[in-house]
Amino acid sequence: MKSKEKTNVYKGIAAAPGIAIKPAYLFKKDIEIINNESITDIAEAITSFNEALEKSKNELAKVFSLAVDKLGEKRAALFEAQIMILDDPILIEKIVSRIADEKMNPEFIVNDEISKYQDMMISSHEPYMKERSQDIEDIKNRIIRNIRKKKWKSRITEEVIVVSESLTPADTVLFSRMKVAGYITNFGGLTSHAAIVARSLDVPAVVGVHDATE
Question: What range(s) does the PEP-utilising enzyme mobile domain occupy (predicted)?
Fold first, then answer.
């Protein structure tokens, strides 16, 4: 007698309509551990930050170009907004000054300084502002990843449904070059930019599942 296959049912928010039946692909991002470390070469640390900043802007410029092609200029404008944050002279000056004054590693200063912006958004009573905090998270993690000279990695060779803790708008746009039939995330809402991008791409998406990656 054959045993019955177990069926797991997950409930979430339908962020983008549609039906997809494909194998699941677990997209796991590296969890960056940010330690508070003292430095001796301030000039080198500032150079490392500036180079990471430029690389981050170049990456987002490429994502913006791809987004214009896939989504149109109106939807792609959110990436221009992210680039503008990276060009914010007050933010850049604050980070550089803190690296020099506190003599701490640039990853720690970047994480601490940009997290302040996030905290203000998360504490807002407006759901829209809370969702926008994820865009700031993407910017922060992008700079830190580039300081550490790491790359965005994903190997998809067949049509799949991407399952992840969360997805950034850039993740969603970059995945549009691959064989992605749908998205499932633990976190996110209807107004998140990643959900909006998925709807624009006509890719089914379910968000707020909470335990999809387990």
Answer: 157-213
